[in-house]
Amino acid sequence: MWEAIRANRRRSTWLMLAMGVVLLSLGASIGILTVSWRGEPTIDDQLVGAFFGVLVGIATWIGSWIYSAVDGDRAILRSVGAREIEKKDHPRLWNVVEEMSIAAGMNGMPRVYIIDDSAPNAFAVGRTPEKSSVAFTSTLLRTLTRDELQGVAAHEIGHIVNEDIRFMTQAAVLVGGVELLSRFFIRVGPFAARGRRSSGGGGGTRMVVAVSPS
To answer: Are 103 and 140 found together in one domain?
Structure first.
């Protein structure tokens, strides 16, 4: 178990570094391209664009890391419409999670959430076992027996104990950082410029760029 925990901590560190490289490279590219769209840039213009792009990438990287540490798990749960429950709301699920937490040697139990969804699914999120959560879809709860539910809960709590959830939570939030820069690229890049030209010209085709919500 301890080796798995150490391995997951190493993976989390490497993930942070890799995402930093991606965000800085993406920011520099956006900065250079933004300058290039405005005419024939000099080398100095491109360097200035790359510099400001890197600053945006650094800000996004640091902001994503802080967000994943402070509110990353709750953000993921909000994004899927999860609602936190107490024992009185679903005694069977609560007892199963409590039993599996005790069996795994946890100090306390994770927060328990239910998601109204047609797919049978469950997952765990959080940065540490002390600040973790497990979520189960309503369809999963309807279709599984108590023994089967114990198996699913034990699997998710295993992720918590081994600190897999730190890596998974960071990955989900940091990917959002890439999406943030990508949205910026779409809004200030050639697509946005073409859309403005098309909407401004008489009889031209208006271009609409759809961006999926985070």
So the answer is: yes
Number of other CB atoms surrounding residue 111 within 10 Å: 20
Give yes or no: 156 in active site: yes
Which residue of the set 3, 130, 156, 163 is catalytic?
Answer: 156
Q: Within a 10 A sphere around the Cβ of 137, how many other Cβ atoms? A: 21
Residue 92: inside a domain: yes
How many structural domains is the chain composed of? Answer: 2
CA–CA distance from 81 to each of 19, 122, 179 (Å)?
27, 13, 20
Per-residue pLDDT tens for 157-197? 988 888 777 766 667 666 777 777 677 666 665 545 454 45
Check whether residue 58 and residue 107 sit in a common domain.
no
pLDDT in tens, 148-166: 999 999 999 988 888 777 7
- Per the structure block, which two tokens stand in for 160? 């918590």
Q: How far apart are CA 57 and CA 69, in angstroms?
A: 18
Query: 0.85 cut: is pTM over it?
Result: no
Nearest to 94 by CA among 126, 134, 130, 59: 134
At residue 25 the predicted structure's pLDDT band, cuts being 50, 70 and 90, is confident
Give the range of the structural domain holding residue 38, as residue numbers without chain letter: 2-70+168-200
